[in-house]
Design a protein that fits this description.
Layout: E1 6-13, H1 19-29, H2 47-52, E2 60-67, E3 70-77, H3 86-93, E4 98-104, H4 111-122, E5 126-132, H5 141-152, E6 160-161, H6 170-180, E7 193-202, E8 206-215, E9 217-219, E10 223-226, E11 232-234, E12 237-241, E13 245-248, E14 250-252, E15 256-260, E16 274-276, E17 295-301, H7 307-319, E18 325-331, E19 335-342, H8 345-359, E20 363-365, E21 372-376, H9 379-384, E22 389-392, E23 404-419, H10 423-432, E24 436-442, E25 447-455, H11 463-470, E26 476-487, E27 489-496, E28 499-500, E29 506-509, H12 513-527, E30 535-541, E31 544-551, H13 567-582, E32 584-587, E33 590-593, H14 594-601
Helix pairs in contact: 3-4, 7-8, 12-14
Bound molecules: guanosine-5'-triphosphate.
Length: about 600
């Protein structure tokens, strides 16, 4: 294929607007896959993707299409469509020259449509606007076209109207891809240079990397260098995804395909890296923004004897998702486990679901938190903390407040689109989450778009559910990283009869301290069984007590019901009580069952 006959493109859309259905139709009408009714979303390969109907990992396929008597190679680069995966979207877009911007004819422009459009615009891509699902009874293609015009400045006659489900208008999409999206700027006579834009781990074949060849030719059997690490690899196999791997002898300038080398894990296959030949002096592709974990949670086996099984399950899953960060962690209450970092909440959800599905182990995930930052003062303290700025992933590691000069918390820029009758309730929900409304615009005479600055910590728990419930399900939400902001934070400690329970410490905004203290104290009162002496449960910031609960003394006489002289039954019951105590953790002289920790810490 001469470079002029190659097109590299992606489909970008809000969740459920039909991206995978359209991809399937494109594969079918180009004969890449046979047309059979059960061709349900070939590109969504993971079980969780099928179940949740969302794309998690980007998949790529090459299609061949004849247009005006000429054969074209169309590389469809699939992108995940969900809020947490901006990073994966942007890296997939780097391999494209254009996108299909897909919008549902009934739902209209949604928060992720806006986010994805912005990414495509920033990457200078040709944008082909498409309205999907025109077969729906409730379809309003004219209204949606008007929205696209008013938000994106897209002229309404550029918009293609299709039904991916029925196949209506899908041919026109192929024509538009060829006519409106430019071919890649690539030159086969230049030294080889290829962009690595995705990678995954295959149990049998090792690391498979997706590459877009910029210039030159990359051939099976030759040696290539990864520019960031300078490591040399041998090309064991190279080919197209059609949509399953189809090996060839070489990939040429402008082509997109896969490569298998002697890389051992996906960490070596750094997304955004450039492959070149040895002793080549080509310029590397500009580096990508590395994936940054913003949501952290602890992961523990329900039973310590399952730790090894959990570890191997987690290790296998992270092999395929290098954006999950993983450290071992241990808690006196929950035992040995892990501290894991995720790109966002959905990423955490998807990970847990995969863990459950693929490995069948039972585990506890702790309530998520964000990386706070503090600035410490005094040369001695700075030295002790390895710098003036300290990132805090675990509340126990918070320096003493007397040495802290400034607290900072991560912020996000959120976009909400909803019908305007919900403006009042959405605004009050956002204010309640310490959101600051930065902008508000009318998309048309029934819908509004709000741009809100939130502390990330405030949207970690139930925000999306609450938003859905105050808008009867009509709001869409998307967010992106917006850096750190100075904040007023405190560490809330919990005490049982005056002994601090380290693993329950929490960091929160000053205004949330009292609520947090009350909530946790109440849960502890409910879950810690009465003992022979009274227990005072307290939540405090430094020495100031914010909440208190009392657990009255009580001796649980397990043998009370066994009057009479059945001594063997009595000893059996006493033995069982003693075994129960083994599962407890002693804080001072108080036995705290593991359940109490789980109840407070669990998500
Ligand atoms: P993500 O992978 O999460 O981004 O979702 P998606 O955009 O890939 O959506 P998907 O293709 O899974 O489609 C979502 C739902 O819309 C499915 O139930 C499809 O059957 C349905 N759908 C897609 N296209 C059409 C269409 O043209 N008409 C109708 N009526 N339904 C459609």
């Amino acid at each position: 294929f001469p470079v002029e006959n190659i097109r590299n493109f992606s489909i970008i859309a809000h969740v459920d607007h039909g991206k995978s259905t359209l991809a399937d139709r494109l594969l079918e009408i180009t004969g890449t896959i046979p047309k059979v009714p059960q061709n349900q979303q070939v590109l969504d390969r993971l079980q969780v993707e099928r179940e949740r109907g969302i794309t998690v990992k980007a998949q790529t396929a090459s299609l061949i299409h004849t247009h005006n008597g000429q054969s074209y190679l169309l590389n469809l680069i699939d992108t995940p469509g969900h809020v947490d995966f901006h990073y994966e979207v942007s890296r997939s877009l780097a391999a494209c020259q254009g996108v299909l911007l897909l919008v549902d004819a009934n739902q209209g422009v949604q928060a992720q449509t806006v986010a994805n459009f912005t990414l495509a615009l920033e990457s200078d891509l040709a944008i082909v606007p498409v309205i999907n699902k025109i077969d729906l009874k409730a379809a309003q293609p004219e209204v949606v076209a008007h929205q696209m015009n008013s938000i994106f400045g897209i002229s309404t006659d550029e918009i293609l109207k299709i039904s991916a489900k029925k196949g209506t208008g899908v041919w026109d999409i192929l024509t538009a891809v060829i006519e409106r999206i430019p071919p890649p700027k690539a030159d086969a006579s230049q030294p080889m240079k290829a962009l690595l834009f995705d990678s995954w781990y295959d149990q049998y074949r090792g690391v498979i990397a997706n590459i877009a060849v910029g210039d030159g030719v990359i051939t099976k059997g030759e040696k290539v260098v990864c520019m960031s690490s300078k490591k040399v690899y041998e090309v064991h196999e190279i080919g197209f995804m059609h949509p399953t791997p189809l090996a060839v002898e070489a990939l040429y300038a402008g082509q997109v395909g896969y490569i298998i080398t002697n890389m051992r894990n996906t960490e070596e296959a750094q997304i955004g890296d450039t492959f070149c030949h040895e002793r080549s002096d080509v310029q590397a592709h500009p580096g990508f923004r590395p994936a940054k974990a913003m949501v952290f949670a602890g992961l523990f086996p329900s039973d310590q004897s399952e730790f090894v099984a959990l570890r191997s399950a987690v290790e296998r899953l992270t092999l395929n998702d290098s954006s999950v960060s993983l450290h071992s962690d241990s808690s006196p209450a929950l035992g040995q486990g892990f501290r894991m970092g995720f790109l966002g909440l959905l990423h955490l959800d998807v990970f847990c679901q995969r863990l459950e599905q693929e490995f069948n182990t039972s585990f506890i995930v702790t309530s998520p938190n964000v990386p706070f930052k503090v600035k410490v003062k005094g040369a001695k303290n700075i030295k002790e903390h390895g710098g003036s700025e300290v990132t805090i992933l675990n509340p126990c590691h918070m320096p003493n407040p007397s040495v802290i000069e400034e607290y900072q918390e991560p912020m996000v820029k959120g976009t909400i689109i909803c019908p305007d009758q919900y403006l009042g309730s959405v605004t009050s929900l956002c204010l309640d989450r310490r959101g600051l409304i930065e902008d508000q615009l009318n998309i048309d005479n029934t819908r509004i778009m709000l741009i809100i600055r939130f502390p990330l910590n405030e949207i970690l728990v139930d925000f999306f559910d609450d938003l859905k419930s105050v808008t009867s399900g009509y709001a869409s939400f998307d967010y992106e990283d917006a850096g750190y902001e100075i904040s007023s934070l405190v560490k809330v400690d919990f005490m049982l009869n005056g002994s601090v329970v380290d693993e329950l410490a929490m960091i929160c905004h000053t205004t949330r301290a009292r609520d947090t203290a009350r909530r946790v104290c109440e849960k502890l009162r409910e879950t810690i069984p009465r003992q022979q002496f009274g227990i005072i449960v307290q939540g405090a910031v430094r020495s100031k007590i914010l909440a208190r609960e009392d657990i009255r003394p009580f001796r649980k006489d397990v043998t009370a019901k066994c009057y009479g002289g059945d001594i063997s039954r009595k000893t059996k019951l006493l033995k069982r009580q003693a075994e129960g105590k083994k599962k407890m953790r002693k804080i001072g002289n108080i036995d705290v069952p593991k359940d109490a920790f789980i109840k407070v810490l669990k998500r």
